[in-house]
Write a structure and sequence with these properties.
mainly beta, 15 strands, 215 residues, 3 helices, 10% helix
Length: 215
């Protein structure tokens, strides 16, 4: 949403203790806006009241496309709304359920081509993506990205890492120890995600950042 569009003022706050989104209705007097917010199992919608028409009008809604749906392409799947089909697997992964994948159901996600070895693993970047669900991830803003890499490499349970801040360059650290869920590819913007792969998969994909696996 635009930060100030004349009707609503939006603000996203993220600091060491909080992360939250707020909105305020703008205007006053004759310019007063009446709005209602609708949340259900499948969508998020905001309506505004049009006095002249005496009716509610849809102001905006989510999801905007298929990739807005949570875990559309399953674990280790990458959703790209501009591609057809929209689901692909990150380099080093293949469809976990080829039959469902062929029918364009990517919800089962992707499986590793080669199991991790822990002592001989490395990382391959996915560039320009929405980072995975961070519900069970761990963040530390006090370390550098290189320190983050070393920390993840030393932990056999660590599956991926990324910078926790991209303001003025990449810094800080987020590490994931559970399967990577809800990754989305952007055409511009996004962040870099470094996924742990076995050494043999790194040799097969020395510079690849994304491997499309069609349905």
């Amino acid at each position: 949403m635009e930060p100030d569009n004349g009707n609503f003022r939006f603000e996203f706050v993220a600091n060491r203790t909080d992360a939250y989104y707020t909105f305020l209705l703008d205007g006053g007097g004759n310019d007063k806006v009446i709005s209602r917010f609708v949340l259900n199992q499948s969508s998020l919608q905001r309506y505004v009241w049009l006095q002249q028409q005496q009716a509610w009008s849809l102001y905006w809604s989510l999801p905007r496309d298929q990739c807005d749906r949570y875990a559309q392409c399953g674990a280790y799947g990458v959703c790209d709304a501009t591609a057809s089909p929209i689901c692909g697997c990150a380099a080093g992964f293949t469809p976990a359920s080829p039959r469902e994948w062929a029918l364009r159901d990517g919800s089962a996600g992707c499986a590793r081509t080669t199991p991790l070895n822990c002592t001989r693993d490395g990382f391959l970047p996915l560039r320009g993506v929405k980072l995975p669900d961070a519900t069970n991830a761990t963040a530390d803003a006090s370390v550098s990205l290189d320190q983050c890499r070393q920390r993840c490499l030393a932990n056999c349970s660590c599956l991926a890492y990324s910078a926790s801040s991209i303001k003025g360059g990449e810094s800080g650290c987020i590490v994931w120890t559970s399967p990577l869920m809800d990754i989305r590819q952007f055409q511009s913007g996004g962040q870099n995600l470094f996924i742990r792969l076995a050494a043999s998969d790194l040799r097969m994909n020395p510079s690849s950042t994304f491997l499309s696996s069609p349905f």
